[in-house]
Amino acid sequence: MAPPRNVVKIAIQMPGAIPQLIQLDQAKPLAAVLKEVCSAWNLNDPEHYALQYADGHRKYITENNRSEIKNGSILSLSIAPDKEAGRLLNALQSGNREVKREALSRLALLAPDLTFAGEVINRDGLQRLGAIIEDGDDLGEVLAHGLRAFSELMEHGVVSWETLSSNFVKKVVSYVNMNLMDASVPQLALGLLESLALSSPPLGQLVKQEVPLERLLVHLQVVNQPLQTKAMALLTALLQNASIADRQTMLDYLGRRNLRQFIYKNIIHSPTPLGDEMAHHLYVLQALMLGLLEPRMRTPLDPYDQEQREQLQALRQAAFEPDGESQGSGLSADRRRSLCAREFRKLGFSNSNPAQDLERAPPGLLALDNMLYFSSHAPNAYSRFVLENSSREDRHECPFAQSSIQLTLLLCELLRIGEPCSETAQDFSPMFFGQDNSFQELFCVCIQLLNKTWKEMRATQEDFDKVMQVVREQLTRTLALKPTSLELFRTKVNTLSYSEVLRLRQTERMHQEGTMARPILELRERLKPELLGLIRQQRLLRLCEGTLFRKISSRRRQDKVWFCCLSPNHKMLQYGDVEEGATQPSPESLPDKLPVAEMRALLLGKDCPHVREKGSGKQNKDVCELAFSVSYDAGEEEAYLNFIAPSKREFCLWTDGLSALLGGAMGSEQTRMELELLLAMETKLRLLELENVPIPDQPPPVPPPPTNYNFCYDCSIAEP
């Protein structure tokens, strides 16, 4: 019989005693449970004892958290938290260094428990620990345990960090600035200062004044990873508390001291694996560095600002006046103004006054900064982008300015510029530490990617949003790979072409629908022959219906019409000329016949004789895509029946049908699409009864044969 829900089976142990296995009734007061446990071990004064978890954080069991006890938990009987706190605090008054060290070590071990911490704080334990830290008589283990215990007690939030004195903070700072043999002391002092800086802005300012950035750089360059991590933690805490102007000043100083290069070379690419805490601090540092772009992102362009107007003119001149020679020299003011407006439209601004395009914030002035950076740091790519699109048809040109504005906004969204830092995130991008001006350099790569994708999609102005969706997907997928350098990012994102994005979408959709599981793939393979037979039947029926084709004369004029169809018994191709505008003739009225048995091969495109004989103009290219021929035996010579399909669909239907008649595979794009559609429909119909049932990738293993077959019943033996 199962025990009641409010009863859990646990084990309780005590050093030197046989463990007790009991059923703990959660409805019974904890004092009564302790009394029974102490009675079983013949212990007096049960109020002097308490239950603790035997492993892990050794948390004390109280009436408030006893519901967390699970079946099978192992508890230990130990001294009650109030008695233990009093004993340890009394030991701190001992003149014996070893006794004090052991007491501080025990305090640091138990301080994470809220119940014990409350008892220590109520007995002025923080003041006693603070005195030990401020005295600093022992710079070894005693001080290290004291710092750890003090930090753990403060983390509970029972006492405000604001209550700490400036003298105490300066003393802790001195441990950071000292060159100590024991690395644990500066490591713990850095951790304490980080918590203090994040919790109390006034004391954080004091820490910023007392801890020089140079000293933090020294700690970052040590090989001790925990000390390195705590130094990075304090650095990011100070940067978070600083104003935008102070943060910029601090990051400029760190940049001059090559902090970025050091992080990239010795932390990110360190042979020691990167810890979760360091990864979080690098994420915060990256967010703070990119956050410096937020003011520009949220500031719209001011059309009356002379500097910003000059920047716009510089952008125009870099594209259309690369040698500094003004095309408008010698023109009237109105004519020059009209010329500038036309050039701004060629640059891709939607208004003749470009200031109107940049009035929206975000991305605000950040978009203008990116365009200027691209034009000055990659002038050849910039000129090629603008001039290449200027020479396209109006509908097919990729507008540089509009693309830059939307791309800047997209990058700000993907990199979460302007958003508060997460307290747990670790998703930093290593390439931002491997490149100066990383955001602007990333923009230069992405704007060229956008132009490449635009051409691959053969996009028009109406497709602008679709192109941006594809670019978003390209960037999202590539950033998720966390490339370690901008060059690697460039390589990976450029291999992710539009066709590759479509393929990945299709694959993911199939995985989501469960159609990529091995049993499903086997089912699809079994269904293929039947469905291909269905498509073959449809193609032959279409050939039996017949189609009107045009003949092309030597002058490339499509001035003659002829009709061709397949006989109902699939043994003859019947064809003949018809009058323009005449109704579709009956098969019996067609004068010419070609037996299917005499057909030898099907030729496509450039292999067709009527295409080879013609020139290579644009019209011939269009004809080539729709041309096909059937070769057949005409006595001792080989003859051809030449076709020019009226449309791409008819081309696919006829070439598939003729291939089927010749016993070949139907390889047109139309067949592939229809087969995929039929397979998807048929598979879903077959799996209707298995909806929401997970299908394993592998079949269950076949069990081994039995060792004997004595269980088999022989029906031939009659029972007595």
TrEMBL record:
<dbReference type="Pfam" id="PF16457">
    <property type="entry name" value="PH_12"/>
</dbReference>
<dbReference type="GO" id="GO:0048870">
    <property type="term" value="P:cell motility"/>
</dbReference>
<dbReference type="GO" id="GO:0006909">
    <property type="term" value="P:phagocytosis"/>
</dbReference>
<dbReference type="GO" id="GO:0007015">
    <property type="term" value="P:actin filament organization"/>
</dbReference>
<dbReference type="InterPro" id="IPR024574">
    <property type="entry name" value="ELMO_ARM"/>
</dbReference>
<dbReference type="Pfam" id="PF04727">
    <property type="entry name" value="ELMO_CED12"/>
</dbReference>
<dbReference type="InterPro" id="IPR050868">
    <property type="entry name" value="ELMO_domain-containing"/>
</dbReference>
<dbReference type="InterPro" id="IPR006816">
    <property type="entry name" value="ELMO_dom"/>
</dbReference>
<dbReference type="GO" id="GO:0017124">
    <property type="term" value="F:SH3 domain binding"/>
</dbReference>
<keyword id="KW-0053">Apoptosis</keyword>
<keyword id="KW-0729">SH3-binding</keyword>
<dbReference type="InterPro" id="IPR011993">
    <property type="entry name" value="PH-like_dom_sf"/>
</dbReference>
<keyword id="KW-0581">Phagocytosis</keyword>
<dbReference type="InterPro" id="IPR011989">
    <property type="entry name" value="ARM-like"/>
</dbReference>
<dbReference type="InterPro" id="IPR001849">
    <property type="entry name" value="PH_domain"/>
</dbReference>
<comment type="function">
    <text>Involved in cytoskeletal rearrangements required for phagocytosis of apoptotic cells and cell motility. Acts in association with DOCK1 and CRK. Was initially proposed to be required in complex with DOCK1 to activate Rac Rho small GTPases. May enhance the guanine nucleotide exchange factor (GEF) activity of DOCK1.</text>
</comment>
<dbReference type="Pfam" id="PF11841">
    <property type="entry name" value="ELMO_ARM"/>
</dbReference>
<dbReference type="InterPro" id="IPR016024">
    <property type="entry name" value="ARM-type_fold"/>
</dbReference>
<protein>
    <submittedName>
        <fullName>Engulfment and cell motility protein 3</fullName>
    </submittedName>
</protein>
<feature type="domain" description="ELMO">
    <location>
        <begin position="307"/>
        <end position="479"/>
    </location>
</feature>
<dbReference type="GO" id="GO:0006915">
    <property type="term" value="P:apoptotic process"/>
</dbReference>
